[in-house]
Amino acid sequence: MNSLIYLAYGLPDLINEGIYSILSYQRLARRDLAQILIYTDQPTEFQQVLGTPANIQYPPISAGQWQAWRGSRVYLLKIEVLKHAAEHYPGNLLFVDTDTIWQQDPEPIFHALGGGQRYMHVCEGVMAEGDYLSQKIYRRLRGHQWQINGRTFTLDATTRLYNSGVLGFPSHDASLLDGIRELAEQLYATYNKHIMEQLAFSMQFQTDRTLAEAAPYVLHYWNLKEIRPVLTQLVHRYAPQGLDVLYAQLSRVNISELHAQELAYRGLAGWQRTLLKLQGRRWRLPHIDV
């Protein structure tokens, strides 16, 4: 069994991101490739747009269970969802954040998962040579050791950081999830930075094999939180006209190009960004007619 998994809890804007991602997937993949599992506290909002096709399921989770899963950190929710999916929907699990757009048919990913391959979205490089934050974390944490389930984890000059917007693994690897949670907690306790969850996944998933990248198949526009109100307006306006019209209107926003533009600005040297800000030319989301 192949399962494509989404998590949309709390924020209404996550629903509309998820709707766009699912529509992009449905235009590339055959209907019987995978069941779509949407973990959400607002299933009706999805159903009003997507209808009730047999291949989309909403695992029933009580309000109390949501709160228990969430705990003190948001990332814990993702881990608990993955544990639930592995137990109740065993097979090949492919989790994607809602702020994603499918660009290629993911059938090869599911085939590789069946052979034991693990996936994350994209490699962000060796931390010792990465961006400013990665290098800062590397300098702070190198030499530390963390004991998880009898295994010693260290951060060294070869540690690669992967983006956790996509997580793919066969369900028999779910035994790693408790260790990932524990490692993440220890990493946060050592140095409280927001990327510790993806670092924990990266370190655990690479312990005994090479990770594969899902990036050629799916775009993860994690840097465009400003686009959420636009997507929400488009869904509200065009969903009543049908899914084909809605998908066309969402696609004309060209999130891929906006994602690349913002990343290019983010990648400038600090003095260059400061100069652009002083000139009133810092990158901003352009006006989008909805």
TrEMBL record:
The source organism is Hymenobacter tibetensis
**Organism superkingdom:** Bacteria
Write the protein's name. Nucleotide-diphospho-sugar transferase domain-containing protein
